Amino acid sequence: MKSSLYKNQMIMFVVMVIVGMLFNPMNILAYRLSDLYMSQTLFYGGLLMASNMMWAHEIVHYLSMGHFNMLIFSIGTMLSICISILLRQQLLVDDKQWLRRMIPHHSTALTTSHKIYNKTTNPEIKRLAKEIIDTQEKEIKLMKSML
């Protein structure tokens, strides 16, 4: 009985980590679907979310139930540290990978700038939003041509 309960808990834990890794909201604000690209940086971001969930889950599990899995905590912590270094240093990212991450990033700026441009009554903000829209469109077009 206890063995099957533990097995079910581990399955749920693995599902939670995988869903955390796959549901990566970094591109949710992209202006166009054609601006979405998969990149190493995006993958690292999802993996960082999942690894943080691993060690945080163990802390919460320990505080609420008194159980602690040192292996999962250690793997999650080490992954979080290593992935943070990879993200900060961009160690494995080449030119194409950088472009594939920057296009959705600029597209997000388009989404937020279009929204504020249509909503604001402040002429300075409206002018700035228009400038951002124009420059981001040009930069996205340039980056897509480089891919």
List the uncertain runs.
none
Order of helices and strands: HHHHH
The amount of helix comes to over 70%
- Rg, Å, rounded: 20 Å
> How far do the termini sit from each other?
55 Å
- Biggest sheet overview: none
What fraction of residues sit in β-strands? under 5%
How many discrete structural domains? 1
Q: What's the rounded overall pLDDT mean? A: 88
Number of helices: 5
Work out the number of β strands.
0
Q: Specify the structural class.
A: mainly alpha
Shape: elongated
Organism: viral metagenome
Pfam families: DUF305
Transmembrane segments: 12-31, 37-56, 68-87
InterPro entries: DUF305_CopM-like, Ferritin-like
Overview of the molecule:
There is one protein chain. With 147 residues, this protein is mostly helical. It has one domain. The model has no long low-confidence stretch (mean pLDDT 88). It comes from viral metagenome.
Keywords:
147 residues; transmembrane helix; single chain; membrane; DUF305 domain-containing protein; 0% strand; mainly alpha; Ferritin-like; 5 helices; 79% helix
